[in-house]
Amino acid sequence: MHSRATSYNRRLLFYTLYLAYIAGGFLSILPGPTLILLARNTHVSTATAGWIFTAGAGGFALGVLLSGALAGKVHPKTLLMAGLSLMAIGAIIYPLTSQFPVLLITALCKGIGFGTLDISINILMTLAFHDSLGESFNSLHSSYGIGALVAPALLSLTLAVMHDFRPAYFTGTILSIICIIMLACQNAPSTAAPPARSAQPAQTAAISTRQILRQPLLWLMALAFFFYVIAEIGFSNWIVTAISQTAAVSLALAAPFATAFWAGLTLSRVVGGQVLKRAMLSENRVLFLCIIGGCLSCLLVAIFPGQLLISFSASACAGFFFGPIYPGLMAIAARWYIHAPDTLSSVMLFSCGISDMIFPVLMGL
After folding, report:
1. Are 252 and 159 in contact (CB under 8 A)?
2. 3-state secondary structure of 116
3. For 295-337, how does the pLDDT look when each residue is reduced to its tens digit (9 = 90+)?
4. Which residues have a Cβ under 8 Å from the Cβ of 110 and sit 6 or more positions away?
5. φ, ψ at 192 (rounded to 5°)
6. Taking the CB of residue 13, how many other CB atoms lie within 10 A of it?
């Protein structure tokens, strides 16, 4: 009886975290397709409005640091609920404010919320699914793509039917509130206080961390994540704006380009997992093919932005080729540094945050 209850709790927790990641993906993607509208609401240029991406990325890095510092003192479920609350509040303010400084501060706070969400979900998954991390993380990771896929499609629908983009943001708020309620009504594992250790093991651990941080291979992996985030976030944040302005079409017609990108990305992560599971291709070959295919797809969009059919197909292909890169790089890095997952995660997330902070706004300058 106890075994069945435990299984049910784990399943319910997984579904809750899955929905939370959908909400995170949904709310993280919306500012990109609505950038022109946000700029119009706050009376600034599109290039200036692009600073919200930098503020959000800075907030993400800050949220990661704060959550890492509080993880041993605050229950991860509480951290997750706080992160969802920040994102829900931000989704209400985003489409309503007419002041750019308010929008910028909101982007920072929403970024903190997403950083907190990301760290707390990883902690809860590690604690609850330590016996099946690979399978569970792969399944969970696709949920972000689902949220990122649904958001532009819903935005396009609300613009076409209601001529208003606010309902799309409010939908993300509702999803976040549902997740908060689900979390509040269930138990979740927590990080138990570790037993007291002697000074010598602690010193050894510190030395080990310093030695890991001095390894060039770790920073090469961080550089790889840096460039990957430049490609994925830069493309997904600006594709709708670029197509809308270059091809002189409405946002309702341009929004499906982002949908095509995230549909390709979500599909490829499912397909990529099956390809590796059946040993049809090696992990290195999958990465090489995806990197080459992703670069060629982005190049097609850059050369033919006014050709809607070509750009739409290339956007879908870009997402398809980008999909397996992140989990593939993370799997390789985890195997290389399996003895230091905390250090690895901190460095990789920091690299992603810095990239996301700098590059998207430069695309608007």
Report:
1. yes
2. helix
3. 898 888 888 877 888 888 888 898 888 888 877 777 777 667 6
4. 27, 56, 59, 86, 87, 90, 91, 94
5. -75, 145
6. 22
